Amino acid sequence: MKPAKLTLDGQDYEFPVHEGTEGEVGIDFTKLRSKTGAISLDPGYGNTGSCTSTITFIDGEKGILRYRGYPIEEIAKSSTFEEVCYLLIYGNLPSSEELQDFNEKVTHHSMIHEAIKDFFQDFPPSAHPMMVLSTMVASMSAYYPRAMSDADLDLNIIRLLAKAKTIAAFSYKKSIGQPFIYPRNDLSYTQDFLNMMFAVPAEPYEVPSVLDRALNLLLMLHADHEQNCSTSSVRMVGSSQATLFGAVSAGIFALWGPLHGGANQRVIEMLQTIRDDDMDFRKYVDRAKDKHDPFKLMGFGHRVYKNFDPRATILKSAADDVLTEMGIDDPLLEIAKNLETIALEDEFFVERHLYPNVDFYSGILYRAMGIPTEMFTVMFALGRLPGWMSQFKEMSLDPHTRISRPRQIYMGETQRPFVPMELRGKSKSELEVEEPELTPA
Ligand code: ACO
């Protein structure tokens, strides 16, 4: 592709253009400042590529999502979470031997250090499980050495993947005052997590297959989403060569925000509010449209998807199937569908390309599975873990990686003399009478 031309202050400059394997075009501005003295200004990074990547492809206009080239619809139909983890981390689908070896490793690293377990006791009962998860993941830096080689990094990735489900389930058990249930090596990743969540020492528990299938689906759909807010946070922290555990801990906090993964908890809270308000969903659509009302339809809108979020489409039909199979009639599902129908016909939402996102229907599924609302974003984090770690790995191995350090356009005061304490707060005219001695700049 021909170079891009930029005219700035009457002078012409050329910049190389890169084309991705799916035809995406990026103007390479790495030399913008050194050539022109100017920087690009793009708050929220809506037009800025922070890296090249071979992990996930999204076409937001067409509603396409692919992991390593495989469409999300095919993955959802035919794969398992363990297989998706392998695919994201190592780049290809595993052979049966590779998958067995991977599963064995993940299974055998799932216990957490007994000293880490003791940390749980010191959190107040009201501690949100996302906070607990992030803190526990960060604390792993104290127990497992920093990666000094590619093999060390792969081992830390396995450790974190394996232990995160134990930490997540323990944080739930702590919050409800039940004893911790230790991981079991005879169960799959999702079965083991559900067992640690719902079993109690007093009686036998068998993971219902409908829950196992639903969790597999949910985790696979959340597994990666290219350079979203939490993944960019992981990459940014990792770019300073911080540890994998520290970078993922930061990603967990970024995910917790209500504009990102925290929206799944907010969606259910919103649907409950509508249910308790005489099911008046029209009122809430109107509130979302009112510029003077801070209320937003949670689970609606996306920075990248402008037609539909393929994950939401899969989850909507899965919610129907799972609730039917479990014999659950949840009024929140009906409210959600009504809200979607009204919003999709409303000019405000149509003009702005606002569609249900992945968080809109996931909460209904988690609710049906008996997962408490405060754990919803933890479930998202468990699913996103292989994505964060494969992106961290890609960044660490990429010879072009530099520390992430954006610039800014300064809009503050220009240079002014320092004002001694006794003269502060005086008016300009008073200051002119008692002009202070200027501090040299
Ligand atoms: N309800 C009502 N109006 C909305 C909504 C919404 N959920 N989302 C966007 N809008 C409006 C904005 O007010 C804006 O209107 P304007 O052009 O008249 O000013 C317009 O649509 C564009 O929205 P932006 O906020 O500029 O879009 P942006 O790409 O910056 O934000 C975001 C995307 C954060 C997802 C936003 O749509 C939102 O806040 N949604 C609700 C929270 C949510 O569901 N987050 C989960 C996203 S998926 C994920 O992270 C896993």
Sum up the structure in keywords.
binds acetyl coenzyme *A; mainly alpha; three-stranded antiparallel beta sheet; 51% helix; 19 helices; globular
Distance between the termini: 48 Å
Radius of gyration: 25 Å
Number of strands: 7
What composes the largest sheet?
A: 3 strands, antiparallel
Residue-averaged pLDDT, rounded?
94
Hetero groups: acetyl coenzyme *A
Based on helices, strands and strand pairing, what is the structural class? mainly alpha
Strand order of the largest sheet: 5-6-7
Continuous helix count: 19
Strand content: 5-15%
Give the H and E element order: EEEEHEEEHHHHHHHHHHHHHHHHHH
General shape = globular
Structural description of this entry:
- It is built from 19 helices and 7 strands.
- The chain has a 3-stranded antiparallel β-sheet with strand order 5-6-7. The chain has a two-stranded antiparallel sheet with strand order 1-2. Strands 3-4 form a two-stranded antiparallel sheet.
- Strand 5 and strand 6 form a beta hairpin.
- The structure holds acetyl coenzyme *A (ACO).
- Acetyl coenzyme *A binds next to helix 17.
Summarize the structure.
This protein is mainly alpha-helical. It has 19 helices and 7 strands.
